Amino acid sequence: MKTSNFPIFTVKSDPSDAEVVSHKLMIKSGMIRKLSSGQYTWLPLGLRVIDKIQDIVRNELNRIDCREILMPLIQPNELWKESGRWSEYGPELLRFKDRHEREFCFGPTFEEVITDLLRQDLSSYKQLPINLFQISTKFRDEIRPRFGVMRSREFIMKDAYSFHASASCLDISYSKYMKAYKNIFNSLMLDFTMVDADSGNIGGSESHEFHVIANTGEDDLLLDDSNNGMNIEIAKEKYQEENLEKIVGKSGMTLKKGIEVGHIFKLGTKYSKPMNLRFTDENSKINDVFMGCYGIGISRVVAAAIEQNYDDKGIIWPKTMSPFQVALIELDSKKNTGIREYTENIYKALKNNGVDVIHDNRDLKLGNKLADWELIGIPNILIIGQKETENKNITLKRRDEEEKREVASEFINDSSLTV
Ligand SMILES: Nc1ncnc2c1ncn2[C@@H]1O[C@H](COP(=O)(O)OP(=O)(O)O)[C@@H](O)[C@H]1O
Ligand SMILES: [Mg+2]
Fold first, then answer.
1. Is 221 helix (H, G, I), strand (E, B) or coil?
2. Domain limits at 355?
3. Do 306 and 328 share a structural domain?
């Protein structure tokens, strides 16, 4: 990829409405742009980060035999009436009518739609278990959208659903998802914790949340020294106490802030019973299906990762979600065609090695180019100008190191340049 055909939209000034560092840096580095309250366009650079996260998520879910589908964004109200949530779910559910006066909503979550899907095809225990997921845009009319894509109205979520013949099968599957989630957040190189949670709007018997630990998090977590614990709603129930200081006193644990990036639920028969999702068991008896559901806020993960990884120059991407592994800066090539030729050779060799590289061939000064790639947060910046072309070497500036250094041109084979 070259900047001549990959637009870079960095900006110098701070956005006026950004309260947290991730929002500020996502605008400045040209990852996102605002359309209206809680709605953002993902620019090419930001979308590459989304793609990296999605690849990791897809890979782990495929490993537990969860298969991808894609459901419609708009849902008919009949299904929500069947589950009882048309009246239960508050104003976050954006409702509207079509030209035939039929009522619909924008999907905030998909339990009703997937339950309806399964009841059309499921009849026998022989078909179970079934595990399905989608990655798609969700809409929730949040009362207070804020922090950019962290709490937006339109956002990208991965939602998975599992279907089982018994509660014990659900338990087994639930642990598999738990393990897959830990693998996902480890692969994303995030400092995270899993806590006991309550089930909120989704419902069911047991649930766990995955939080990225960050001071700007909106959720209070009660954690022990190894960061195990519970969210604050559960803590209040457990210690029969509303006051946070008193909860800390009673529990001997610490309060920390978290950003909820994932949430898993044992739904049991909460949706299958009212919506008649049933199957025939080995003894020809008809039973309700047991269900689980499992969400990850893909777009929120991007913001959460930045909250944990930045400095005064900009973002410092964990390498597994960085939009590129290498930014190759070409300098002064107008003055000297040898520079262009040498850089082009290095670029081709990097590409041949499978390195995810962007070649910055813009006609700008080193200071401006370096500032852009440090703001964008690329782990390795390689610089080639007059001096490097003469010496047949490269100047390396790692994002997490202070000083530049010279390396031999063979450095392009270094394993640190690939994920
Ligand atoms: N308004 C939002 N903006 C961005 N991501 C969201 C938003 N709401 C939920 N998510 C993400 O989707 C995941 C699953 O949602 P869910 O647990 O149903 O939401 P909530 O905890 O807000 O009720 C959350 O863990 C979070 O990462
Ligand atoms: Mg949740």
1. strand
2. 324-417
3. no
- Reduced to 3 states (helix: H, G, I; strand: E, B; else coil), residue 417 is helix
Are 302 and 333 members of one domain?
A: no
144, 159, 218, 263: which to mutate for ligand 1, most atoms within 8 A of CB?
263
Confidence of residue 334 (pLDDT cuts 50, 70, 90): confident
Residues near ligand 1 with C-beta < 6 Å?
A: 109, 140, 142, 151-152, 155, 157, 200-202, 260-263, 295, 297, 299-300
Q: Within this chain, do residues 218 and 330 fall inside the same structural domain, yes or no?
A: no
Element (H, E) at 405: strand 405-408
In a domain, 319, yes or no: no
Q: Residues 78, 222: one domain?
A: yes
Helix boundaries (H) for 44-105 = 44-63, 77-83, 85-88
User: Above 90 in pLDDT, residue 170?
Assistant: yes
Distance 37 CA to ligand 1 centre (A): 17
User: Would you state the pLDDT for residue 301?
Assistant: 98
Please check whether residue 316 lies inside any domain of the structure.
Answer: no
Distance CA 416, CA 318 (A): 13
> To test the ligand 1 pocket, which listed residue (300, 301, 302, 307) has its Cβ within 8 A of the most ligand atoms?
300
User: What's residue 395's pLDDT?
Assistant: 98
pLDDT at position 335, please? 83
Per the structure, how many domains does the chain have?
A: 2
User: In whole numbers, what is the pLDDT of the chain averaged over residues?
Assistant: 96
